[in-house]
Structures are given as structure tokens and as C-alpha cells.
Amino acid sequence: MIDVVKRINELLEQKGWSNYELSKQTNISTNTIYDWNKSGATPSLSSIMKVCEALGITPGQFFCGTERYELLPNEERVLREWFSLSDLEKETLRKMIETFQILKR
After folding, report:
1. Are the C-beta atoms of 18 and 28 separated by less than 8 Å?
2. Which CATH number does the domain housing residue 49 bear?
3. pLDDT higher than threshold 70 for residue 68
């Protein structure tokens, strides 16, 4: 599994950006960004999407670590739909996915 904070730091280094610059570009507080590094907390999906947008990359490029990977249309649709769900709906969907994973074993 990808270390999200490490990946963000790699991308910032490539771009020559500081945490402060990322904060300005994403409207994520600098304290939150520093907390990711200090506590090892994983950024939310919405924060990752803001980071991707600010850095000019797709989520596929973020998670796969390559500029050549593009999300398929259905994968992009799933991400877009995710953001329209309530917290309860997201949690229900997570549980459904876990159930499917158990059933596949």
C-alpha cells in the first residue's frame, strides 16, 4: 500500500514546493499538512484530490507513481460520485466493499 504522506512529499520535492506553498495552493492549513508529517495521519481523499489538482496530476498518477497512468472513465466516475455521498453513505459503501473482499476469499 502506498504511503500517502511520503508520496505527497516526493511530489512536493519534484515541484520544488514547501508545505507552505502546498497550503496556499490547496487551501489546506499548514498545520494540517505538518500534522500529516508529524503524526503519520493519512490525509482524507478530498485532501488528496486537492493536492492532485494543485500539482496538476490525476489521482491515478498520484497513486501509481507514474505520469503515464490514467484513470479509466468508470474509475473517474466512482471518484466523482464518492464526493456526492454523505458520511453515512460512505461508511456503508466501505462496509459493502469489506464484505465483498471477505466473500472473495
Report:
1. no
2. 1.10.260.40
3. no
Range of 96's domain? 72-105
64 and 83 fall within a common domain: no
How many domains, the chain?
A: 2
Mean predicted lDDT score pLDDT of the chain? 86
Which residue is listed with cell 472513465?
73
Please enumerate in sequence order all residues whose Cβ is within 8 A of that of 3, keeping only pairs 6 or more positions apart, or say none: none
Helix ranges (H only) for the chain are 4-15, 19-26, 30-39, 45-55, 59-64, 73-84, 87-104
Q: pLDDT tens digits, residue range 5-21?
A: 999 999 999 999 999 99
d(CA 101, CA 41): 25
- CA separation for the pair 40, 5 (Å, rounded): 7
